[in-house]
């Protein structure tokens, strides 16, 4: 495998949410899709690992547990960035400025509606509070992720002209589900300087999902957005099954080989695997 400069950048995993013990992430025991030893061997250089406090009955405590687990992790070879799925804890004042300053990227909603706007499964617009918080997060150097916004809220956020990304979405043209992006939104994210992270979730790829189908979505996103605006966000540990040919983070070499086999040049594989995400995080914040 050709190592990318800085290694593979995976813009979304749910490993902190799935690990019953943070030691699972460090011991290489193969209980998760991603762990540090296997990721390092596979060439991973950066991972955004999410906390999704809105998924739990006690979101304030859930955030604290996730944040404490993230702080306990250290790796000499893999950079671990913190993502927040759903900003209700911020809006409610459960997260102080000191903790928020360590978040690199955030989505205003998770699934469903909150006080900030409409997530997947709704047809609600961003609220005024959501618009204000979006602007505040950008001023604070936190990237905005539109992956869990419904079409209406996402359209409003894109219309604000703020730098945004989609860390784990695929192409609706190829798989027509609400969690995937229509071509117009892919173009708009690219025009704002963002990146679309193609994800490994089988239901977002299509029937009989495999590596070939994953590369189909990469190709389509590149055709629509341009080579500099496409990356990966695997959603490892956020989904039960994976596409055929992918077992976990140890399968990254097979994914990159799939790009090469499809005719992507080495420099373009380098961009998709990591450098596009690094450019966006450096340009727009996403504290690293």
Give the DSSP E fraction (strand runs of 2 or more residues). Answer: 5-15%
Please give the count of helices: 12
Helix content: 25-40%
Please give the radius of gyration in angstroms. Answer: 17 Å
Count of distinct structural domains = 1
Q: Which CATH-level-2 architecture?
A: Alpha-Beta Barrel
Biggest β-sheet: strands ordered side by side in the sheet: 1-2-3-4-5-6
End-to-end distance: 26 Å
* Main structural class: alpha/beta
The global form is globular
Instruction: List low-pLDDT spans.
Output: none
Main sheet summary? 6 strands, parallel
User: In the CATH hierarchy, what is the class?
Assistant: Alpha Beta
Annotation, overall tally of beta strands: 8
Describe this structure in words.
The protein contains twelve helices and eight strands. With 288 residues, the chain is α/β, with parallel strands linked by helices. It has a single domain, classed as Alpha-Beta Barrel (TIM Barrel), CATH 3.20.20.140. The strands form two sheets. A six-stranded parallel beta sheet has the order 1-2-3-4-5-6, with helices on both faces. A two-stranded parallel ribbon has the order 7-8. Helix 10 packs across helix 11. It is globular and about 45 Å long. The mean pLDDT is 92.
């Amino acid at each position: 495998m050709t190592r990318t400069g800085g290694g593979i950048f995976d813009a979304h995993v749910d490993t902190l949410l799935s690990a019953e013990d943070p030691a699972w992430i460090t011991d290489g025991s193969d209980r998760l899709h991603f762990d540090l030893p296997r990721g390092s061997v596979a060439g991973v250089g950066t991972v955004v690992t999410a906390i999704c406090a809105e998924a739990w009955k006690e979101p304030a405590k859930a955030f604290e547990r996730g944040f404490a687990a993230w702080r306990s992790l250290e790796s000499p070879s893999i950079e671990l960035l913190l993502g927040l799925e759903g900003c209700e804890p911020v809006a409610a004042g459960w997260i102080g400025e000191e903790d928020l300053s360590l978040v690199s990227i955030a989505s205003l909603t998770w699934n469903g509606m909150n006080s900030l706007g409409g997530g997947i499964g709704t047809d609600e617009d961003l609220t005024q509070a959501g618009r204000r918080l979006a602007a505040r997060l950008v001023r604070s150097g936190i990237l905005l992720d539109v992956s869990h916004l419904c079409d209406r809220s996402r359209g409003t956020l894109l219309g604000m002209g703020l730098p945004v990304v989609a860390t784990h979405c695929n192409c609706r043209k190829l798989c027509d589900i609400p969690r995937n992006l229509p071509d117009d939104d892919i173009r708009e994210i690219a025009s704002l300087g963002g990146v679309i992270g193609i994800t490994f979730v089988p239901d977002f790829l299509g029937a009989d999902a495999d590596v070939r189908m994953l590369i189909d979505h990469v190709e389509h996103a590149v055709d629509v957005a341009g080579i500099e605006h496409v990356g990966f966000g695997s959603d490892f540990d956020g989904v039960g099954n994976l596409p055929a040919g992918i077992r976990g983070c140890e399968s990254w070499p097979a994914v990159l080989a799939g790009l090469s086999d499809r005719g992507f040049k080495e420099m373009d594989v380098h961009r998709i695997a990591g450098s596009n995400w690094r450019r966006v995080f450096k340009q727009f914040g996403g504290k690293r």
